[in-house]
């Protein structure tokens, strides 16, 4: 088993956990960079990455990010021994993987901490997350914010999400269903309530529709401190079915964003027109992975038709992200030109 972790710093230790597989590391690294860049020099940022397959090369590249900041520590923890023998439902969507369940291990792995902030890897912070970390969670199992985008589907009569949450999950207060992408966990309180063995067995006991998020909402209902949705902002495609009170809450979060969450399928590294995607590229450009991310993007056919329009919109709005889109455009054009030349050479050879 992995050794129990100790706080990396004696004072002003801001403990932040993420989970990733090897392929997802570049995007998680973007989240980490956004947090430390927007951090305060008086705070110390104690990052822990939970994983079971991150290769040595990516581990070294992540460590190089930490080496740039005196007030940052980064440890990469292999949790294979903890999850061995458990089978977690992930469905057939690319954006759901077994790593999503690793956050359930935090209370045991970090039992010597008072509280720990968990952040999904598909986020970017626009402000110092230390403010969120300072939230008083005494008497609660954790703090999080309402899943407002999910609530749109809950109230949509064309979906069966309401039936699932009411009848299958048996939630007493469905309007308080929170998102698991951002969790501030009260470690001592959580450990009093649930053992790791119980959490993992409960997680593996059925096919949870929204995976670990459903699990935590069932187990923690009534003991969650709800914080502003500005700490986990997702942009919905429509808000038609959202009740007025929740609609106002969503609009307020969009006007005062602290953390952007690129949840769902429309990731900025896949689609050029992802709302608020320019913020992702702003921080991605400051990681050692920027060229790799561009290369991945240009080798994908998805969304290629929208490149020009996305670029024009970026510059029209005067967004800083425009220059990163321009880098992408240049790389994409070079890639297409190379393919065209190779095709022409092939035709000439055949002829």
Condensed summary:
The chain is α/β, with parallel strands linked by helices. Helix content is 42%, strand content 13%.
Task: Describe the fold and architecture.
This protein has 351 residues and is an alpha/beta fold. It has two domains: 13-261, Spore Coat Polysaccharide Biosynthesis Protein SpsA, Chain A, CATH 3.90.550; 277-350. The chain is built from 15 helices and nine strands. It has helices spanning 25-37, 56-67, 80-83, 106-109, 130-133, 148-155, 161-168, 187-193, 196-203, 211-220, 244-255, 277-284, 290-298, 307-316, 322-350; strands at residues 13-19, 44-51, 72-78, 115-119, 123-125, 142-144, 182-186, 224-226, 259-261. The strands form two sheets. Strands 3-2-1-4-7-6-8 form a seven-stranded mixed sheet. A two-stranded antiparallel ribbon has the order 5-9. Helix 1 (25-37) links the parallel strand 1 and strand 2 (44-51). The longest helix is centred in the C-terminal third of the chain and has 29 residues, at 322-350. Mean pLDDT is 87; it is low at 303-308 and 346-351.
Defining traits:
seven-stranded mixed β-sheet; 351 residues; Spore Coat Polysaccharide Biosynthesis Protein SpsA, Chain A; 42% helix; 15 helices; alpha/beta; 13% strand; 9 strands
